[in-house]
Amino acid sequence: MSLIPHNLQAIAATIVAAAQESGRPAASVQLLAVSKTFGADAVLEAVAAGQRAFGENYLQEGVDKIRAVQEAGATALEWHFIGPIQSNKTRPIAEHFDWVHTVEREKIAQRLSEQRPAGLAPLQICLQVNISGEASKSGVTPQELSALAHKVAALPNLTLRGLMAIPEPVEDYAQQRAAFAALRALYQQLRAEGLALDTLSMGMSADLRAAIVEGATIVRVGSAIFGSRNYHKA
Ligand SMILES: *Cc1c(COP(=O)(O)O)cnc(C)c1O
Fold it and tell me: What sequence ranges are listed for the domain Alanine racemase N-terminal (predicted)?
Protein backbone atom coordinates (compact mmCIF):
# COMPACT_ATOMS: atom_id res chain seq x y z
CA MET A 1 0.00 0.00 0.00
CA SER A 2 1.35 3.43 -0.80
CA LEU A 3 2.00 6.03 1.83
CA ILE A 4 -1.19 8.11 1.96
CA PRO A 5 -3.72 5.23 2.28
CA HIS A 6 -1.40 3.57 4.77
CA ASN A 7 -1.17 6.74 6.88
CA LEU A 8 -4.95 7.26 6.73
CA GLN A 9 -5.44 3.76 8.08
CA ALA A 10 -2.99 4.34 10.91
CA ILE A 11 -4.74 7.58 11.90
CA ALA A 12 -8.14 5.92 11.77
CA ALA A 13 -6.78 3.36 14.25
CA THR A 14 -5.46 6.13 16.53
CA ILE A 15 -8.88 7.82 16.40
CA VAL A 16 -10.66 4.59 17.31
CA ALA A 17 -8.32 3.97 20.27
CA ALA A 18 -8.45 7.54 21.61
CA ALA A 19 -12.23 7.79 21.20
CA GLN A 20 -12.61 4.53 23.11
CA GLU A 21 -10.40 5.95 25.85
CA SER A 22 -12.81 8.89 26.18
CA GLY A 23 -15.89 6.66 26.06
CA ARG A 24 -17.10 8.01 22.73
CA PRO A 25 -17.87 6.33 19.41
CA ALA A 26 -15.07 6.77 16.87
CA ALA A 27 -17.67 8.20 14.48
CA SER A 28 -17.95 11.25 16.75
CA VAL A 29 -14.47 12.32 15.60
CA GLN A 30 -14.10 13.57 12.02
CA LEU A 31 -10.71 13.50 10.33
CA LEU A 32 -9.88 16.67 8.43
CA ALA A 33 -6.97 15.96 6.07
CA VAL A 34 -4.82 19.10 5.91
CA SER A 35 -3.49 19.17 2.35
CA LYS A 36 -1.70 22.54 2.36
CA THR A 37 1.47 22.57 0.23
CA PHE A 38 0.49 19.21 -1.34
CA GLY A 39 -0.96 18.98 -4.83
CA ALA A 40 -4.31 17.86 -6.19
CA ASP A 41 -2.72 14.46 -6.91
CA ALA A 42 -2.17 13.88 -3.17
CA VAL A 43 -5.78 14.91 -2.44
CA LEU A 44 -7.06 12.54 -5.12
CA GLU A 45 -5.02 9.72 -3.62
CA ALA A 46 -6.63 10.36 -0.24
CA VAL A 47 -10.09 10.56 -1.88
CA ALA A 48 -9.51 7.18 -3.48
CA ALA A 49 -8.80 5.85 0.02
CA GLY A 50 -12.15 7.19 1.25
CA GLN A 51 -11.18 10.58 2.71
CA ARG A 52 -13.83 13.29 2.16
CA ALA A 53 -12.88 16.41 4.18
CA PHE A 54 -9.81 18.54 3.38
CA GLY A 55 -8.29 21.60 5.04
CA GLU A 56 -6.39 24.40 3.33
CA ASN A 57 -4.48 27.36 4.82
CA TYR A 58 -3.56 29.48 1.83
CA LEU A 59 -6.41 30.98 -0.17
CA GLN A 60 -5.09 30.95 -3.73
CA GLU A 61 -3.51 27.53 -3.34
CA GLY A 62 -6.73 26.20 -1.86
CA VAL A 63 -9.02 27.63 -4.53
CA ASP A 64 -6.77 26.33 -7.34
CA LYS A 65 -6.69 22.87 -5.72
CA ILE A 66 -10.47 22.74 -5.23
CA ARG A 67 -10.87 23.49 -8.94
CA ALA A 68 -8.27 20.92 -10.02
CA VAL A 69 -9.78 18.22 -7.82
CA GLN A 70 -13.30 18.96 -9.15
CA GLU A 71 -12.04 18.87 -12.73
CA ALA A 72 -10.48 15.48 -12.00
CA GLY A 73 -13.99 14.28 -11.20
CA ALA A 74 -13.93 14.02 -7.40
CA THR A 75 -17.24 15.29 -6.02
CA ALA A 76 -19.07 15.46 -2.68
CA LEU A 77 -15.94 16.62 -0.88
CA GLU A 78 -15.94 19.09 2.01
CA TRP A 79 -13.39 21.93 2.00
CA HIS A 80 -12.39 23.67 5.24
CA PHE A 81 -10.47 26.95 5.36
CA ILE A 82 -8.10 26.83 8.36
CA GLY A 83 -5.62 29.65 7.66
CA PRO A 84 -5.38 33.27 8.77
CA ILE A 85 -8.01 35.50 7.08
CA GLN A 86 -7.29 38.93 5.66
CA SER A 87 -10.40 41.10 5.60
CA ASN A 88 -9.98 41.92 1.89
CA LYS A 89 -9.81 38.20 1.01
CA THR A 90 -13.08 36.97 2.46
CA ARG A 91 -15.05 36.70 -0.80
CA PRO A 92 -13.22 33.71 -2.33
CA ILE A 93 -13.44 31.94 1.04
CA ALA A 94 -17.21 32.53 1.16
CA GLU A 95 -17.55 31.32 -2.43
CA HIS A 96 -15.38 28.19 -2.42
CA PHE A 97 -15.30 26.67 1.07
CA ASP A 98 -17.85 24.80 3.19
CA TRP A 99 -16.28 25.53 6.58
CA VAL A 100 -14.06 28.23 8.10
CA HIS A 101 -12.24 27.40 11.36
CA THR A 102 -10.35 30.65 11.86
CA VAL A 103 -12.90 33.38 12.49
CA GLU A 104 -11.68 35.65 15.28
CA ARG A 105 -13.32 39.03 14.52
CA GLU A 106 -16.90 40.18 14.01
CA LYS A 107 -15.98 42.16 10.89
CA ILE A 108 -14.64 39.04 9.15
CA ALA A 109 -17.77 37.09 10.08
CA GLN A 110 -20.02 39.86 8.74
CA ARG A 111 -18.17 39.91 5.43
CA LEU A 112 -18.30 36.12 5.10
CA SER A 113 -22.05 36.21 5.76
CA GLU A 114 -22.65 39.02 3.24
CA GLN A 115 -20.50 37.36 0.59
CA ARG A 116 -21.82 33.82 0.93
CA PRO A 117 -23.52 33.15 -2.42
CA ALA A 118 -27.29 32.65 -2.32
CA GLY A 119 -28.09 29.03 -3.11
CA LEU A 120 -25.17 27.62 -1.15
CA ALA A 121 -25.67 26.17 2.31
CA PRO A 122 -24.69 28.49 5.17
CA LEU A 123 -20.95 28.64 5.76
CA GLN A 124 -20.07 26.46 8.78
CA ILE A 125 -18.03 28.45 11.29
CA CYS A 126 -15.66 27.80 14.16
CA LEU A 127 -14.25 30.65 16.22
CA GLN A 128 -10.52 30.43 16.76
CA VAL A 129 -9.65 30.94 20.42
CA ASN A 130 -6.26 32.04 21.71
CA ILE A 131 -5.95 29.41 24.41
CA SER A 132 -2.20 29.78 25.07
CA GLY A 133 -2.22 33.50 25.89
CA GLU A 134 0.73 35.52 24.65
CA ALA A 135 2.40 32.54 22.97
CA SER A 136 -0.07 32.82 20.08
CA LYS A 137 -1.06 35.91 18.12
CA SER A 138 -4.16 34.37 16.59
CA GLY A 139 -7.59 33.90 18.04
CA VAL A 140 -10.14 35.72 20.15
CA THR A 141 -9.28 35.90 23.86
CA PRO A 142 -11.36 33.75 26.22
CA GLN A 143 -12.65 37.01 27.77
CA GLU A 144 -14.00 38.29 24.43
CA LEU A 145 -15.27 34.94 23.17
CA SER A 146 -18.84 34.97 24.47
CA ALA A 147 -19.73 38.38 22.99
CA LEU A 148 -18.24 37.41 19.63
CA ALA A 149 -20.00 34.03 19.61
CA HIS A 150 -23.44 35.54 20.18
CA LYS A 151 -22.88 38.10 17.40
CA VAL A 152 -21.66 35.49 14.90
CA ALA A 153 -24.51 33.12 15.76
CA ALA A 154 -26.98 35.84 14.73
CA LEU A 155 -25.56 36.34 11.20
CA PRO A 156 -27.88 35.01 8.47
CA ASN A 157 -25.60 33.07 6.11
CA LEU A 158 -23.34 31.46 8.70
CA THR A 159 -23.91 28.57 11.08
CA LEU A 160 -21.78 28.82 14.19
CA ARG A 161 -20.68 25.25 14.94
CA GLY A 162 -18.03 25.57 17.60
CA LEU A 163 -14.50 26.45 18.60
CA MET A 164 -11.03 25.86 17.23
CA ALA A 165 -7.60 26.29 18.81
CA ILE A 166 -3.95 25.74 17.98
CA PRO A 167 -2.30 25.49 21.39
CA GLU A 168 1.35 26.22 21.82
CA PRO A 169 3.18 23.00 20.82
CA VAL A 170 4.31 21.01 23.87
CA GLU A 171 5.52 17.43 24.09
CA ASP A 172 4.14 16.66 27.53
CA TYR A 173 0.87 14.74 27.25
CA ALA A 174 -0.66 16.20 30.43
CA GLN A 175 0.10 19.73 29.21
CA GLN A 176 -1.41 18.94 25.82
CA ARG A 177 -4.57 17.75 27.53
CA ALA A 178 -4.75 20.81 29.78
CA ALA A 179 -4.90 23.19 26.79
CA PHE A 180 -7.62 21.16 25.09
CA ALA A 181 -9.56 20.88 28.35
CA ALA A 182 -9.52 24.68 28.56
CA LEU A 183 -11.07 24.95 25.08
CA ARG A 184 -13.68 22.34 26.00
CA ALA A 185 -14.62 24.33 29.13
CA LEU A 186 -15.21 27.45 27.00
CA TYR A 187 -17.31 25.39 24.58
CA GLN A 188 -19.42 24.01 27.41
CA GLN A 189 -19.89 27.49 28.81
CA LEU A 190 -21.20 28.77 25.46
CA ARG A 191 -23.56 25.82 25.23
CA ALA A 192 -24.81 26.63 28.71
CA GLU A 193 -25.48 30.17 27.42
CA GLY A 194 -27.83 28.65 24.84
CA LEU A 195 -25.66 28.44 21.73
CA ALA A 196 -26.27 25.20 19.79
CA LEU A 197 -22.63 24.21 19.25
CA ASP A 198 -21.49 20.71 18.29
CA THR A 199 -17.88 21.12 17.14
CA LEU A 200 -14.50 21.22 18.85
CA SER A 201 -11.79 21.53 16.18
CA MET A 202 -8.60 20.63 18.00
CA GLY A 203 -5.65 18.29 17.64
CA MET A 204 -3.04 17.95 14.89
CA SER A 205 -0.49 15.26 13.98
CA ALA A 206 1.53 15.68 17.18
CA ASP A 207 -1.27 15.97 19.75
CA LEU A 208 -4.13 14.02 18.21
CA ARG A 209 -4.66 11.62 21.07
CA ALA A 210 -4.77 14.28 23.80
CA ALA A 211 -7.28 16.30 21.77
CA ILE A 212 -9.63 13.36 21.20
CA VAL A 213 -9.47 12.29 24.83
CA GLU A 214 -10.52 15.86 25.73
CA GLY A 215 -13.47 15.81 23.34
CA ALA A 216 -12.30 16.87 19.87
CA THR A 217 -14.95 16.32 17.19
CA ILE A 218 -12.69 17.40 14.31
CA VAL A 219 -8.96 16.70 14.26
CA ARG A 220 -6.87 18.53 11.64
CA VAL A 221 -4.07 16.26 10.50
CA GLY A 222 -1.52 17.13 7.81
CA SER A 223 1.99 15.73 8.03
CA ALA A 224 0.93 12.40 9.53
CA ILE A 225 -1.09 11.80 6.33
CA PHE A 226 0.85 13.52 3.56
CA GLY A 227 4.39 13.62 4.95
CA SER A 228 6.50 16.59 5.96
CA ARG A 229 5.87 19.86 4.16
CA ASN A 230 8.27 21.68 1.86
CA TYR A 231 7.10 25.29 1.92
CA HIS A 232 9.50 26.37 -0.84
CA LYS A 233 7.79 24.10 -3.32
CA ALA A 234 4.31 25.35 -2.45
C1 LIG B 1 -0.91 22.84 9.11
C2 LIG B 1 -2.06 22.83 10.05
C3 LIG B 1 -2.54 21.64 10.61
C4 LIG B 1 -1.89 20.29 10.39
O5 LIG B 1 -0.68 20.23 11.06
P6 LIG B 1 0.17 18.85 11.14
O7 LIG B 1 1.07 19.09 12.28
O8 LIG B 1 0.87 18.73 9.84
O9 LIG B 1 -0.80 17.76 11.38
C10 LIG B 1 -3.66 21.71 11.43
N11 LIG B 1 -4.28 22.88 11.69
C12 LIG B 1 -3.84 24.04 11.18
C13 LIG B 1 -4.57 25.28 11.51
C14 LIG B 1 -2.72 24.06 10.37
O15 LIG B 1 -2.29 25.23 9.89
Answer: 7-229
Q: What's the CA gap between 21 and 27, in Å, rounded? A: 14
In a domain, 99, yes or no: yes
pLDDT at 16 over 90: yes
Which residue has the least CA distance to atom 4 on ligand 1? 222
Residue type, 155: L
Query: ∠ CA(151), CA(197), CA(106), 5° rounding?
Result: 20
165 CB less than 6 Å from ligand 1?
Answer: no
Q: Is 62 in the pocket of ligand 1 (CB under 6 A)?
A: no
Furthest-apart CA atoms within the chain: distance in Å: 49
Q: Is residue 70 part of a domain?
A: yes
User: Which pLDDT tens digit goes with each residue over 118-164?
Assistant: 999 999 999 999 998 876 679 999 999 999 999 999 999 999 999 99
Residue 33 sits in a domain whose CATH number is 3.20.20.10
